[in-house]
Specification:
Blueprint (H helix, E strand, L loop, with lengths): L11 H18 L2 H14 L4 H10 L3 H14 L4 H17 L3 E6 L3 E6 L4 E5 L14 H16 L5 H20 L3 H32 L1
Amino acid sequence: MKVSSSPGAQNPSTLLSEILRAAEGAARRGDRRRAYQLSLEATQIAPREINAWLIRAETASSIEESAACLNQANALLPSGAEVKQKTYQLVQKLLNQDPFLLYLAESEHLYHIRSGEQLSLSVPKDRSVPEPYPAERPALLQTAYRWLWMALIGLLLAGLGAMVFAPLAAVAAIGLYLRHPSKSIRIKSLVVLILAGSLWLCGLLLCVILLVHSI
């Protein structure tokens, strides 16, 4: 299949799709040289096209270029299943040649390693990022807790402090419930809301008792 790449011949996205289809077809037929030439052209036209980098990595004549192409694919989409698979295959190939890998650094999604042949490679992390422990509290939940404690202490002031601070805790809890999707956080906000209501009623009762005794 001959693909025209002359400027203005056709829409760039259509041209890219045709080149990639031709490259995939050549790779399936075992024509690695043709597939590589087409994938090289595709990466030049669209440097952010994942499939072009993967085909080029698979059909490159040197392991160094394959690693460079996979590094580019990992930089674009480290979570891609096919990107991971081809990267792990290359790592296994490197280990078969020389069972040595040197850890260099890491980012949120990638490990950066070096083989015994001084070949640098980015490898996707095939694990979930653990949640911090203890879990971080949303700022609004901390605010609600602070008002709740102040309302509790405010009971000592004949209930007046509770009547002032309990509504503030309730407002913060309602805002947290409406804004936060986490089920556990929503449950905590409801608990704060119930406690704030209880403290407000206690504060009201103390104020009434104080008023009755002062008359």
